[in-house]
Backbone:
């Protein structure tokens, strides 16, 4: 994202204390609510606008500090609020975290051009730039379910701009282009981690294994936990949450 947008994001008051700020012209809502009011979570986060690489304004919340950044992409239908609990876990572990609302979700407006509405890779490219301008030396993409799909699909395009990608229950495909993770796998070369559940109806074990098999990454791993928990639930409310979180954090530290 552009430096002006980054400056606007970082100038916001701490969201848990009720801060909000003016949007960029008429490109979005006039104000953004705090995470406290919209998510019911008191958390030290800076809430503001940043730009996707094609200029679409996006809603984001920045947590933590550290040389390693993590972009958290949400499930659907949902918004960035679902990542707040685990975003706090990552920030306490020393990571710089950016929670985003993809275009057309949460407070992020849809693209003005309908043909650009599904270009979610542009959202993630803008988020990576935002974290690097904020001080991250390396950035990972991490998404749950829908966000796992967008992260996997975007990763080959971003190439060396990212250090790796983590998909938490991301399906093989939810549509063409930026929603077809399986098609992106032969072009994926960065370290790759899939976290899922053995009885998840949205990401069957066979699908998870096929994603891993097709990925061209030298360093790739699939971890499946008991039960049918899906998406961010694996990291926040499942019985396996502590083990799942350790695997994610170890992956982020390693690569």
Residues:
């Amino acid at each position: 994202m552009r430096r002006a947008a980054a400056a606007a994001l970082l100038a916001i008051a701490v969201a848990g204390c009720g801060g909000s700020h003016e949007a960029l012209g008429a490109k979005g809502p006039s104000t953004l609510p705090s995470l406290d009011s919209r998510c019911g979570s008191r958390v030290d986060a800076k809430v503001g606008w940043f730009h996707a690489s094609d200029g679409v304004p996006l809603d984001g919340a920045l947590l933590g500090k550290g040389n390693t950044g993590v972009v958290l992409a949400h499930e659907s239908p949902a918004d960035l609020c679902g990542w707040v609990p685990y975003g706090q876990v990552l920030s306490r572990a020393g990571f710089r975290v950016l929670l985003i609302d993809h275009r057309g979700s949460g407070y992020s407006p849809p693209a003005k051009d309908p043909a650009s509405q599904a270009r979610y890779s542009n959202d993630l490219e803008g988020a990576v730039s935002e974290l690097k301008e904020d001080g991250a030396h390396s950035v990972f993409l991490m998404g749950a379910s829908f966000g796992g799909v967008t992260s996997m699909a975007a990763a080959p395009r971003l190439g060396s701009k990212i250090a790796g990608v983590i998909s938490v229950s991301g399906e093989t495909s939810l549509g063409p282009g930026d929603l077809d993770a399986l098609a992106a796998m032969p072009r994926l070369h960065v370290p790759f981690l899939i976290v899922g559940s053995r009885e998840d109806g949205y990401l069957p074990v066979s699908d998870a294994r096929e994603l891993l098999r097709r990925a061209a990454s030298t360093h790739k791993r699939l971890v499946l936990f008991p039960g049918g928990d899906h998406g961010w639930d694996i990291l926040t409310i499942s019985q396996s949450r502590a083990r799942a979180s350790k695997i994610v954090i170890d992956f982020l530290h390693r690569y």
Summary: Confidence is low (pLDDT under 50) at residues 1-28.
